[in-house]
Amino acid sequence: MNPDVVTKPARNLCITHILPIRDALDILSGKWKIPIIVALCVHKRRFKELHRDVQGITAKMLSKELKELEVNKLVKRTVHDTSPVTVEYSITEYGHSLTPVINELRDWGLKHRDKIIYHPEEA
C-alpha cells in the first residue's frame, strides 16, 4: 500500500479533529480576545475600565473585539438608562465554558516559558 495515500477513515478522523479546532481558533484568534475574556471573568466592566485593564489595546480594536465576542455569545453588552448612558460588558455563561481551555493555555504557556527561557538547552 502506498504510504502517501490516506485512507478515508483516517481523513474523516482528521477532519473531525481539525474543523472544530479551526472554528475555535477563528473565534479566539488574535492577541486580544482571550485577555478580554479573562478580564471579564473577574467581574463586569465598563468600556474604559476594560480598556485600562487590557493594556496595549487601542479603543478601536477593543470595540471591534467586543463586537465579535458578543456576536459569538461569549460577551454580553448591557446598556443602562442613566445620564450619561452607561454600557457594561460581562462574560456570558457560555463564555465561562472557555475557563478550562484558558487555564490549560496558561499552564502550557508557563511550561513553555520555563523550557525556552530558563532551560533552553533541554530538548
Automatic annotation (TrEMBL):
UniProt entry keywords in alphabetical sequence: DNA-binding, Transcription, Transcription regulation
Superkingdom in the source lineage: Bacteria
UniProt GO MF annotations: DNA binding
Residue intervals of the HTH hxlR-type domain: 19-117
Gene3D superfamilies per UniProt: Winged helix-like DNA-binding domain superfamily/Winged helix DNA-binding domain
Protein name per Swiss-Prot or TrEMBL: HxlR family transcriptional regulator
Organism the protein comes from: Rufibacter radiotolerans
Species lineage: Bacteria, Pseudomonadati, Bacteroidota, Cytophagia, Cytophagales
